[in-house]
Amino acid sequence: xxxxxxxxxxxxxxxxxxxxxxxxxxxxxxxxxxxxxxxxxxxxxxxxxxxxxxxxxxxxxxxxxxxxxxxxxxxxxxxxxxxxxxxxxxxxxxxxxxxxxxxxxxxxxxxxxxxxxxxxxxxxxxxxxxxxxxxxxxxxxxxxxxxxxxxxxxxxxxxxxxxxxxxxxxxxxxxxxxxxxxxxxxxxxxxxxxxxxxxxxxxxxxxxxxxxxxxxxxxxxxxxxxxxxxxxxxxxxxxxxxxxxxxxxxxxxxxxxxxxxxxxxxxxxxxxxxxxxxxxxxxxxxxxxxxxxxxxxxxxxxxxxxxxxxxxxxxxxxxxxxxxxxxxxxxxxxxxxxxxxxxxxxxxxxxxxxxxxxxxxxxxxxxxxxxxxxxxxxxxxxxxxxxxxxxxxxxxxxxxxxxxxxxxxxxxxxxxxxxxxxxxxxxxxxxxxxxxxxxxxxxxxxxxxxxxxxxxxxxxxxxxxxxxxxxxxxxxxxxxxxxxxxxxxxxxxxxxxxxxxxxxxxxxxxxxxxxxxxxxxxxxxxxxxxxxxxxxxxxxxxxxxxxxxxxxxxxxxxxxxxxxxxxxxxxxxxxxxxxxxxxxxxxxxxxxxxxxxxxxxxxxxxxxxxxxxxxxxxxxxxxxxxxxxxxxxxxxxxxxxxxxxxxxxxxxxxxxxxxxxxxxxxxxxxxxxxxxxxxxxxxxxxxxxxxxxxxxxxxxxxxxxxxxxxxxxxxxxxxxxxxxxxxxxxxxxxxxxxxxxxxxxxxxxxxxxxxxxxxxxxxxxxxxxxxxxxxxxxxxxxxxxxxxxxxxxxxxxxxxxxxxxxx
Length: 807
Ligand SMILES: Nc1nc2c(c(=O)[nH]1)N[C@H]1C(S)=C(S)[C@@H](COP(=O)(O)OP(=O)(O)OC[C@H]3O[C@@H](n4cnc5c(=O)[nH]c(N)nc54)[C@H](O)[C@@H]3O)O[C@H]1N2
Ligand SMILES: Nc1nc2c(c(=O)[nH]1)N[C@H]1C(S)=C(S)[C@@H](COP(=O)(O)OP(=O)(O)OC[C@H]3O[C@@H](n4cnc5c(=O)[nH]c(N)nc54)[C@H](O)[C@@H]3O)O[C@H]1N2
Ligand code: SF4
Ligand SMILES: [Mo]
What we know:
Blueprint: E1 24-26, E2 49-55, E3 65-71, E4 74-80, H1 83-86, H2 97-100, H3 102-106, E5 116-118, E6 127-129, H4 132-150, E7 155-156, H5 170-176, E8 183-185, H6 191-201, E9 219-223, H7 227-230, H8 237-247, E10 251-256, E11 269-272, H9 278-291, H10 297-303, E12 304-305, H11 323-328, H12 339-346, H13 350-362, E13 366-370, H14 380-393, E14 428-430, H15 434-440, H16 446-449, E15 463-467, H17 479-486, E16 494-499, E17 511-514, E18 523-528, E19 532-537, H18 550-560, H19 564-568, H20 573-587, H21 594-600, E20 602-605, H22 614-618, E21 632-633, H23 637-642, E22 682-688, H24 701-706, E23 710-713, H25 715-720, E24 728-733, E25 736-744, E26 752-757, E27 798-804
Helix pairs in contact: 4-18, 5-18, 6-14, 9-12, 9-13, 9-14, 12-13
This protein binds ligand MGD (2 copies), iron/sulfur cluster and molybdenum atom (MO).
One ligand MGD binds near residues 469, 498, 694 and 779.
């Protein structure tokens, strides 16, 4: 493999000349159109083709390269970077089906083309075209009014992930210049694991070893991770996973309530587990290891705190608070965590747990990895902590072929981003609690809602700029409740929505601005898996209709608010990109020049095997972690101190405790396999689907045909309910009802239904009392109650009932 030796002849870009610059002309044409996505429209047949490069900017680690074949200033078809472009076989940031269907989105009849104002009720979706002048004027004057009335703490930019690029946060920058906005912390992706990892490993060890490291492993355990589905694209973990399996002889176990697609194509073992119970599985394994003398005591005593009495912090000695005491039944709930105990909870037979435990105890190197499914749950902080504790029990940390139990690490190219400016507002909320902050902000405190930077909120959220996100409803939880909060105009008084299509969240906007995709403007992004790469792109066509870039929109607002010069610093977006890129090159001089980068489109850098915590393993004193003890903390005193005095709800902690556990225990979920009810007797778990990235592409009919929205249900549960494959069914619970197709399959554990997240919510919110969601969005059924420690979204934790829709 070499670094960008690929020929550039097919796209020898002209020197960039702003919005319309960089056109490459090439022969070729209609015959090469991808049959799957339709013929090149007849109108283009004779036109000369130009090719431009761009990147996928959706929240998918692929960030793939897209190749636009453009005729008469219209995109005729889209494909991707291939070995022909590269001049080498791999790695190639090739786009998946979704990326290759972009033409379906960018030219869709529902694509937003003009600024609009709302003329119906919030959520009704009735809008009228207005001028840019009116749109910006309204958005700016409302902002001023809210700031004057309530202060800047009432202004908020919700979590939203539809655009990743080096200049993708212009609205935050604009707001910083007019007094600021309420911050958020956490993400919807990793709230629980990102919160717990620093307690255990310190703040600098958040990622695991690269997948390439696992080539040296003898045993590989993946907990709730599916690189083939969630790391798609030609140059990230999907690719790395496929290659790893060609190279390794290791035994691989994938532990998941669902037989995910990453299990396929290798003699892997799927261990079906009840959702939300991984910490119980780990506890059962720990018990076996202890009983059979397979625990690495040297490692635990040298590198860790809290495994047993010997390494408990002074103040906590003699109280049976160690992990060992939890496992052996001397402390906490006083239950011995035998494999038989774990079997009942996890649904995994006791012999299987014992066999797995034996293998864990005897096979080295052991590579333990977890995805983020196990942590996006009500007990996710402790689940992810327990999974991380597993390799520690057998000393499989910091050595060749091992990982630290977190998600795989990567090699990536990091680019400097548009400075967000200094936000004068210091307070911050967990992003998942924004609907609470709209509904009852002044009741939210540090101790009941994780408010940071102050003891409490003074005011609720009154003004939002929702840019490139569908998290107001569709991707947030309990859509019915979110609707009730957002549709009340006395609560959040103004919502500005910026998108490319009328997603469900945008129906709640008061003013809508139509955005250009990143491949309709100059853009750059870096990413990577085992290998690192960067993609630079030029506009594929001129801007159509009245669409503008987000940078232009924020500039217009800044101008209205009298801070244009401070906002732009006299620069166009492209000038910013050039300047930021030069900053990146100063830090990383191997990067090509800007001109080269634009010419090449794709820059690839072969990555290195990275073993997490290698230095710490070699010398734990010289390379102490930045935890309070400098060691791995299996018991965290800091967690106890931080959460002292917190208000907890029933089920947040172990029965009988009034504090949060400071070791990785199994806490039964509030809505889980141990808390189903007669009314809702099944667990309901979610996953990220290959048909969409969240809700993105969720309205593209061709993709819906390939990837229908289905509820996975085990034949045992289906039979009981008279449900057959392909039936239309209703899944319901205390929060709502969704309608979708049944996928009757042994690929999901009995007693649990699995529904992919991100389907487009489709309910009559005004006429239908039941608000049946015929789009099948799982967030009609999820709760807004946050997980106890991180205050994150526990969106995989639900219970339900399923019934066939009568004919
Ligand atoms: N139940 C459940 N819910 C979940 C999850 C789960 O596992 N289960 N996962 C959560 C996670 S991890 C995440 S990250 C969130 C993601 O939630 P979101 O950040 O809301 O992601 P998307 O649904 O992809 O929405 C992205 C929006 O950006 C728009 N967009 C795309 N390209 C552009 C562009 O160029 N410009 C503009 N202005 N807009 C654009 C799309 O049309 C879409 O409306 O969802 C969370 N929600
Ligand atoms: N195709 C596609 N790719 C994506 C996305 C997408 O929407 N679609 N979203 C992107 C984003 S923003 C993110 S954050 C990541 C999300 O990446 P992840 O969070 O890792 O993805 P999930 O599908 O939520 O979970 C991974 C697996 O965990 C399983 N799982 C759920 N609960 C449990 C549990 O309690 N125990 C165990 N052992 N397994 C469990 C699920 O069945 C699933 O197979 O993916 C990214 N990639
Ligand atoms: S959705 Fe992901 S895998 Fe598909 S083209 Fe975009 S970045 Fe690549
Ligand atoms: Mo995410």
